[in-house]
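This follows on from our talk about sequence and fold. Please put the record directly below this note.
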Amino acid sequence: MRRVALLGAALALALVPSVASADATSAPVRHLRVGDVDLAYRSIGRGEPVVMIMGLGGTMDAWLPQLVDRIGRGRRIVVFDNRGTGRSSAGIKPITVRTMAGDTHGLIRALKLEHPDVLGWSMGGFIAQQLDLDHPRDVDRLVLAATTGGGPGTTLPNPDALSTLLGGGPGALLGLLFPLPAQQATAAAYVASITRWSDFSLTIPSEVLSAQLGTSAQWFAHGANPKRIHAATLVGGGREDQMIPPGNQRRLAAGIKGAKLVLYAGAAHGFIAQDWRSFGARVDRFFADS
């Protein structure tokens, strides 16, 4: 089975050499059987639990460690590889948003997390919404980053950005996270940071990536009814996002009763890493005040 290594070793070697190591990066990878899959995860810190769900083409090692540490002050952070990515098995069920929401539900129950807060980035935001709809007791507060509720009225990806994503290649996703010329240093610092994770892996089989693309297209077309989401919700995004344009975040926040919205100028799909200090502080206040 051919495996595609996103942001491969050659790219990592070309990066700025050093950033301060975050405590999160030393957390060991653990494994847990959930239904038909073996899920790889990390549990970091202690306190009220926060589950972070990764997006399309990423593993848990794509989270910026500094953001994890910022949100994790006084909290327990759980990050994991979605089925078929990184060190998690693919199982026998089809890879869909609903299936991955079920995996997240199983992980929460197996780890005995009591009504955790949930943060989803991009496709991870689709999964987080489906988790709230299918298993509302699993979600206390909800953070939806660079994502969409899908369905009629959705702003579709920029065709050029979509072509870049479908074309693949080691730098395709990185270029979509930080597409602006002024973001090159940010992109380099991001990769230099994430490569510090222990047992680092951003590997995803081509067939799993294809399945993620297929279920994401279905979500864009049909999505979920945001009015059915009752959890306190914070929606965030980048004003220059070409993959899931900011009109989606505006529409999503408007559809969820009481939802808060924050959009970052000069940022795209990777705003969550570019503006991690500001967004991490915003998430922290949201968790404290909601």
Observations:
- The longest helix spans residues 206-221.
